[in-house]
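stuck on this chain:
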Amino acid sequence: MTKSKSKNLPRFGSLDELVNFFDTHDLGEYWSEMPDAHFEVDIKRKTHLFAIDTELANKLTEIAKNREISSEALINTWLKEKIQEQM
């Protein structure tokens, strides 16, 4: 019979103690002690990437910073406005 390479996981009084422990220990040595994680992923939003000119991107970033919004929000707002003009 093969000897298990996993070690027994110590008990922790807090999440911080657990995090600090694994900052200095190899998770792989305790793998068999880890609980199974079950979760579902339901991605409804798609992200589309478009290449834009570097100078244009820099200007957009600057404008977005001045307005205290993300570049993504600024671009989406402007594109929606432009599309509405075409309708």
Remarks:
- The chain has a mean pLDDT of 89.
- Residues 54-86 form one domain.
- The longest helix spans residues 71-86.
- The radius of gyration is 24 Å.
